[in-house]
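Input sequence (317 aa), recorded before submission:
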Amino acid sequence: MGIFMQRFGMNALGRRVEAGSLARGSKVEARMAGGNRVEAVGPKAYSLNPTPYSSQPMAAAKPFGRYGPLESHEVRQPDVTGQSLADQVKRTRQMLREMTPEKVLEVIEFHKGLNLFEALALAKEEGKLIIPNDIHDRILNERTDMQYLEQNYPVWTGTLVIYEKLDMPFGEHIWVQSDMFDDSISFTVPEHFQGKVNCALVIEHPDFELVYLGQNKYELKVSDEQNVHQIEQFPKINGQYKPNAETGIPHGKQVTELEKTRYLWRSDDAYLGLLGRGYRNGDSERRVVVAVDDWSGVSGVALVPLAFAPKMSDSHD
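Predicted structure, token format:
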């Protein structure tokens, strides 16, 4: 079992957890899109035994286990009156990418102990953006306050990734089920991505939503198919890769040097879910991108209010 995955308490998607290793916690109701509500079950905490990268994560325990309480930080609430959601989101992403990591940390807030469904529900209820992977990547790799990183990570990012089984092309639909519980998510693959093999599809929050269909079934919906982006040469095995310039997701050929590379954890099976980023007891974990979590695992999430987006006519004044 991979030691990194031990540290984060994760079970790789597609592997069964041994009987008795998990117990259902207290049931939590979280409001989902369209007014639906879902019952989420939190697993028990895991012990952490850290060392750097080791074997493949296929037999690992859950990567985002419970940690201690995390403080929520108040953030500035910008005026968004009269602006479309698309403008607000675009402006917020641009603002975050132009800020230094220190400035970003002044405007975001961290919440702890949320599974994937609860994280998305909280962001929707508060009308906030879940911080994307590339922003977390800058914080983790440029921030020097190790105590701060250990306090606030691991987290779910707002970057959702979808990939098929190894060497299997995308079909019309992809369907993935939680290995631990009965939850399942389906997605209708845009036609121009069907037939693509060994690649990943990426959608940034809030350009998607999970629609509850009943009986623990969800459907992933996108607001616009143009918001679905392809990462070509998505790695087939875990290892060191160059990060994609826009998303920070590892891709391309495996490399041996560590400088400016990221370490990818993925499954041999299909996956649909948010990327995870973490930092626990070691600089090496700054570079790890987790794309194999189970949705019922609990983690932190970082949110930011949507920024004021000036109208196009104002931008040229």
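Checked by second reader. Confidence is low (pLDDT under 50) at residues 1-80, 311-317.
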